[in-house]
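Q: My collaborator sent me two sequences in one message, no labels, and asked for predicted structures for both. Can we handle them in order? The first one she listed is below.
A: Yes, handling them in the order given. First sequence, followed by its structure tokens:
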Amino acid sequence: MAKKQTPSDSSKIKLQPLGDRVVVERDESDTVTAGGIVLPDSAKDKPTRGKVISVGDGRLLDDGSRSPLQVKAGDRILFTSYAGDNFKLGTRELLLLSESDILAVIK
């Protein structure tokens, strides 16, 4: 019988995206404005920055070879606000997006 995963076990799970997909952990949204106003959850914008957790093996080209991705695990990136699909892995909220949704690498 398979062992049931608990939230504490989620750190052991390795998630390997396919093709030109990238798994990103989105940055936390600001809770206070520059003027000191505390924002409720409903007023917070989705952050468009995050850290790459894992990457796929690249886009499949017409000749059957793979084009490697321009980002790697650990990169900090900027992406479009409505890009990708949100999902939970244990207690972590992650984002699965295509490489084409990535706008820039933050250095």
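Q: And the one she listed second?
A: Here it is, processed independently of the first:
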Amino acid sequence: MDFSHKQYFLFDMDGTLADSMWLWDSFLKTFLESYQKEIDAEAQNKFDNLPLKDSAEYIALRYGLPLSGKAVFRQWTTEIRHMYQKEIPLKQGAAKYLYYLKSSGKKTALVTANNTELAVGCMGNNHVLELFDALVCGDQMAMDKSDPEYYRYALRQIGGRAEEAVLFEDTYKTLIAAKKVPIDTVIVEDISSKTDKNMLMDRADLYIKNFDDQILYG
């Protein structure tokens, strides 16, 4: 993949720039264990796919917790906010690559399903927030990232055209959405997407293990 003519770079956050998926993979299990409860597949599925507030209501009722759904949601948001603002690191080579793009005069956008507060906290704590020309976050949008319009909107925010842009992502559903824009897509390897690895490698324009891959600097 030739990056020399690309002027606009879009980046997902969780699992792509930020090494954060471990939080979501273990968060509910750890929470339930604090109440001597065991997680099951149905509960994890609800947590993964419902908005956090709805998931908190479901978990409080499902497990008969001594907390209301609202109280669970407040506890979760406090803990998650702390982790994003203090603990979650960037992927290997990510900061170096963002600084490289900035010094090269490229335009960049953070394009995440996560909310603005967590995105700002995580990127700020890792000293890269000022490197983005635009932030496109889930709480700003009326659609999810399986909709190609999510990426078209991000491109409009930085004045970019799809043929001059590249998107960095880590999941199969977002890769398929990007193909409908269409926009060239680099998949960054993440353990949370390991079951889709073969499909990702087949469909992506480029598949990398981390941002130290020298082809990115071409």
